[in-house]
């Protein structure tokens, strides 16, 4: 079958294996097949692509829930959407969620996803109590911060390269309603944007949309959205997208003129410098999930999301360099999201560090990759790194400079004989 990540580039031929019981998976491993796990296909690049893929979609059952503590145990193929559909009406929400609910629990752990509250609550692994991991010889290890600790640290953020996550036990949080009390703040430039982040750093959730094509005195202008769970009577979540993007847009549709026009209109849709509103969980956390197959808008060639983090101390200088380079290139993105991140955790390949992370979507075109190479240099010069879950073209050298715990990760791969069993197109490209 043909398989790709969410960016739809690259597209490869892969032999898919679906399992619904651990014994079936153990039998598959007895054949000594080199493979990688594949959840819902929402990692953007090639981190879940290989000639042989293990699909977790049938391994998707709830196992236990403690309605006093909010501790949920489920199989790794369960999606965030399924969890929200069941538990939001009961007054529970995820402690940490990324910008889409259409990912599996296994994928959330393997990417150690983060959200709009990382500066307060950290990565998804912060809510994880333990998980079961199947190794290539079929043995199953329970991993936690007390048991098989190095496997825990290597698996959270390890992009599926340590084995197959079978089940996970993690905490949900109580919420008073399914509504968010949101404040939208309008910043005229990058300095104002970062000042607002500092001013609202104690807000539970914060995220900014940035006009990455603005120049001069308007460079880095943005809309910052901050919020918290509202006291309201409503407890519900949207079950399915209401709209579907019907076809691939032609390549010429997204250009500096159309993106610039969109950015201008989007920024000026807010007239006030501060606007308060009440919005749903879906609108606040998952706005793009409202449109099924929205990745088609980038055309048949696909797209990539370039996401990096730079330390807090380099924030203004580094972001100014990056926004200047992007705006001058004309290869703008209308999905340009800036977040404040809290301190790093101890996991070997987890992406966040204390600082600012920027995510930008670019359609694939010949002029793009030279620009991204230039951005890599700026990011590394400021002590930053790129996110593996979004990557499709990083070099091994860029990875080496950005991640300081590669030696520990390599040791785990060696100790448990993982190099001959779990490999993705990305891991081979990066020498992981």
Describe this structure in words.
This protein is α+β, with helices and mostly antiparallel strands. It has two domains: 36-175 and 405-430, Uridine Diphospho-n-acetylenolpyruvylglucosamine Reductase, domain 3 (2-Layer Sandwich), CATH 3.30.465.10; 179-396, Alpha-Beta Plaits (2-Layer Sandwich). The chain is 26% helix and 26% strand. The chain is built from 13 helices and 21 strands. It has helices spanning 22-29, 80-87, 105-110, 118-121, 149-155, 190-199, 256-268, 281-285, 315-329, 368-381, 396-402, 406-415, 425-430, and strands spanning 2-4, 11-13, 15-18, 36-38, 52-55, 62-66, 71-75, 92-94, 128-134, 140-144, 164-174, 179-187, 205-210, 222-229, 243-244, 274-280, 291-292, 303-311, 336-341, 355-363, 385-386. Strands 16-12-14-13-19-20-18-21 form an eight-stranded antiparallel sheet. A hairpin with a 5-residue loop joins strand 9 and strand 10. Helix 9 runs antiparallel to helix 10 (368-381). The two termini are 25 Å apart. The mean pLDDT is 94.
